[in-house]
Design a protein that fits this description.
The protein has 343 residues and is of the alpha/beta class. It has 2 domains: 145 residues, Rossmann fold, CATH 3.40.50; 161 residues, Rossmann fold (3-Layer(aba) Sandwich), CATH 3.40.50. It is built from 13 helices and 13 strands. The strands form 3 sheets. Strands 2-1-3-4-5-6 form a 6-stranded parallel β-sheet. It has a 5-stranded parallel β-sheet with strand order 9-8-10-11-12, with helices on both faces. The protein is globular. The termini are far apart. One 2-acetamido-2-deoxy-beta-D-glucopyranose binds next to loops.
Amino acid sequence: MCLLLCFLCVLLLYLFNEWSKTLRVNPSAFSSSRNVTILLWHHPFKTHVNLKGDVCWNLYRIPHCRLVDQRSMFSSADVVVFHNWELIYNSQKLPTDRPRPRGQRWAWMSFESPAHNGNLSQFANIFNMTISYRRDADITVPYGELLPKEDKKLLGEDNLQKKTSLVCWVVSNYRPHYKRSQVYTELNAIIPVKVYGRWKKTPLSSSALLPTISRCYFYLAFENSLFKDYITEKLWRNAYRGGAVPVVLGAPLNDYKAVAPPHSFIHVDEFASVRGMAKYLQELAEDKKRYAEYLAWKKHWKVKMGTDWRERLCKICPQFNSLPQHKVYSDLQAWDSAENTSA
Ligand SMILES: *[C@@H]1O[C@H](CO)[C@@H](O)[C@H](O)[C@H]1NC(C)=O
Ligand SMILES: *[C@@H]1O[C@H](CO)[C@@H](O)[C@H](O)[C@H]1NC(C)=O
Ligand SMILES: *[C@@H]1O[C@H](CO)[C@@H](O)[C@H](O)[C@H]1NC(C)=O
């Protein structure tokens, strides 16, 4: 009798423990077990994005987020995502002839700068949300971001010994009228700039890119166009991962300050003249201690890239419930070409 009672107690305890475990693991399981369905209307740049399986959970631990690309799912999709490039070049059309299900949101997605987004005035009063690198988009996915580092290893000083070039630039698409070309020309007249890429007929394979940059003290992370928040892999991957200190030209200084570690980059606008900047770079490369201060952030932070289309889509889900109930971009062109308003 006593034995039986003991056994029952143990069983009860065990069951209770298992039950409470399920609660702990997923506290939201009871409130929002519904999947949010994201329909990708067409694949960006004709490259197929593999949406098979529960990609948001498997890759990013984002639950209840279903990515689909079957247009037959239109009527049950919570969000339909349209990549801008195909729309402006007329290879894809908006399904404006279909009745839009109540509550469905249409999302405009572009990671290009406004210089390459085309004329968006045709898209007035169509979209409910934006997906972009811009900090003021409904869904912001920057090209890169920082994550705190668990093992706080210091970067070895020996890295500096391997440096053979003062300033490097990788450029494929050289246009003389770009601001970046003018700054390069002026800089190169004062200090040597080693140029790689298709322009100088010295293209770098993707596996050679970062090792090459690592041998430079400074890397010109010059964007092709100057727009707010437009900060691309040139900073996050090429410079930061390559291990050169970035000299940046693109978004305003304050945009960089908002997302990049303090004292990790040099902005062209911080100098009254290119000559002044050239002098600064030279002095810095000769002063190991001061130069190393520009790499000190690496002890605490690591760079995470945000360039996977699946992540860009999955990121809608955690924010889905806090999107405004009703929102329409009545003038998308104006939104896209908005002036730099960051303080
Ligand atoms: C939610 O979506 C995932 C991934 O597609 C799927 O495996 C799961 O069965 C779905 N759950 C519900 C409740 O529909
Ligand atoms: C965009 O196109 C509209 C007509 O479709 C035109 O009125 C407008 O001037 C164009 N805007 C720009 C910036 O080219
Ligand atoms: C989305 O935009 C359409 C077109 O302007 C509008 O009719 C609809 O109410 C909007 N939906 C939401 C959820 O904001």
